[in-house]
C-alpha cells in the first residue's frame, strides 16, 4: 500500500471546507493510477470531501475520461503501464489547457521533481503519502486555479505592457497571448498585485503554494524562470521580472 490508512472521516475533519466549483457544484477530480487499491482509496477520500470523482488505470483511459468528464483537477501517477505520466500530462493539457495536475511519484530525487514541474505539473506528492496531504495539495491547486472560488467582478492587473485578467485568467503582453499553468498564473498575479515591491522566496512560497514546500525554495527560482521565458522571450521585449540577490523578486514596468 502506498498511502497511509487514515480514514476519510479524519481527512474531512482536518479540512472542513468542501471542494466546490464556482457554481457551487462538486469539484470534479480525475484520479489516474494503475494500482486499483490506491485509486479506490483516493477516490473514496475525495468523495467524502464532496468531490465528484472519475478514475482511470492508464494514460489512454485518462485522456478519454478527461475528454468526457472535464475535470477541475487531475491526480496523475507518473508511472503508468501504457505511457509515461509526463506524456499523459501533455495530452491532458491539449484537451483542457488550464487543468491543474498533481503528480504522484515514487521517485523523490530533485531531478525527477524538476522534470515533472518542467513538463507542466503544478505540484507533486511522493509515495508513500497520507490522504490528508493529497487533499490539502488538491485544495491548494483548486484554489489557485480559481475552480473553487465564487465568481468575482472582473479585475485586470497591468504592469507596463503586461495585462492579467483575474476573471478570465487571460494574460497578454504587447498584444500577444501568454499561456500559463495555474501555478504560473498565481505567481504572476502575486507579483503584479505588488508592483515594484521586493517579495522574498518565503513570502512567495507562503502565498502561492500555501504550505511548507519541504524546504525546496528553489521551486520559486524554477517558476520565475518559466515566467521569464514566457513573458520576456519575444524580440524587443525588455525584462519585467527582476531579481534582487539575497532579497527576492519584483515586477516593474520597463524603464
Explain this structure.
With 255 residues, the protein is α/β, with parallel strands linked by helices. Helices cover 40% and strands 18% of the residues. The protein is built from nine helices and eleven strands. It has helices at residues 8-14, 36-48, 59-69, 85-95, 110-118, 131-145, 182-192, 201-209, 218-232, and strands at 28-32, 52-56, 73-77, 101-105, 123-126, 156-159, 162-165, 171-173, 176-178, 241-244, 248-251. Strands 2-1-3-4-5 form a five-stranded parallel beta sheet, sandwiched between helices. The protein has a four-stranded antiparallel beta sheet with strand order 6-7-8-9, covered by helices on one side. The chain is elongated, with a radius of gyration of 18 Å. Mean pLDDT is 80; it is low at 5-16 and 147-154. This is Response regulator transcription factor. The modification 4-aspartylphosphate is found at residue 77. Keywords: DNA-binding, Phosphoprotein. Residues 1-20 are annotated as: Disordered. Residues 154-253 form the OmpR/PhoB-type domain.
Question: Briefly, what is this?
Answer:
With 255 residues, the chain is an alpha/beta fold. The protein is built from 9 helices and 11 strands.
Which helices and strands appear, and what pairs or packs with what?
Blueprint: H1 8-14, E1 28-32, H2 36-48, E2 52-56, H3 59-69, E3 73-77, H4 85-95, E4 101-105, H5 110-118, E5 123-126, H6 131-145, E6 156-159, E7 162-165, E8 171-173, E9 176-178, H7 182-192, H8 201-209, H9 218-232, E10 241-244, E11 248-251
Parallel strand pairs: 1-2, 1-3, 3-4, 4-5
Antiparallel strand pairs: 6-7, 7-8, 8-9, 10-11
Helix pairs in contact: 1-2, 3-4, 7-8, 7-9
Amino acid at each position: 500500500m502506498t498511502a497511509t490508512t487514515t480514514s476519510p472521516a479524519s481527512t474531512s475533519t482536518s479540512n472542513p471546507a468542501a471542494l466546490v466549483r464556482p457554481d457551487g457544484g462538486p469539484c470534479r477530480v480525475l484520479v489516474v493510477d494503475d494500482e486499483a487499491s490506491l485509486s479506490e482509496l483516493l477516490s473514496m477520500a475525495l468523495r467524502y470531501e464532496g468531490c465528484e470523482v472519475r478514475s482511470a488505470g492508464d494514460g489512454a483511459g485518462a485522456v478519454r475520461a478527461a475528454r468526457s468528464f472535464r475535470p477541475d483537477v487531475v491526480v496523475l501517477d507518473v508511472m503508468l503501464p501504457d505511457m509515461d505520466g509526463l506524456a499523459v500530462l501533455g495530452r491532458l493539457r491539449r484537451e483542457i489547457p488550464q487543468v491543474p495536475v498533481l503528480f504522484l511519484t515514487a521517485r523523490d530525487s530533485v531531478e525527477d521533481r524538476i522534470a515533472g514541474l518542467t513538463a507542466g505539473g503544478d505540484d507533486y506528492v511522493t509515495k508513500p503519502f497520507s490522504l490528508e496531504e493529497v487533499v490539502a495539495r488538491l485544495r491548494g491547486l483548486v484554489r489557485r486555479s480559481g475552480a473553487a472560488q465564487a465568481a468575482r467582478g472582473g479585475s485586470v492587473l497591468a504592469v507596463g505592457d503586461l495585462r492579467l485578467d483575474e476573471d478570465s485568467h487571460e494574460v497578454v503582453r504587447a498584444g500577444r497571448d501568454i499561456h500559463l499553468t495555474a501555478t504560473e498564473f498565481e505567481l504572476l498575479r502575486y507579483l503584479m498585485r505588488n508592483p515594484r515591491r521586493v517579495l522574498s522566496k518565503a513570502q512567495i512560497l507562503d502565498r502561492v503554494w500555501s504550505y511548507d514546500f519541504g524546504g525546496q525554495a528553489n521551486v520559486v527560482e524554477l517558476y520565475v524562470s518559466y515566467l521569464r521565458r514566457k513573458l520576456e522571450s519575444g524580440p524587443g521585449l525588455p525584462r519585467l521580472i527582476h531579481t534582487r540577490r539575497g532579497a527576492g523578486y519584483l515586477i516593474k514596468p520597463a524603464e
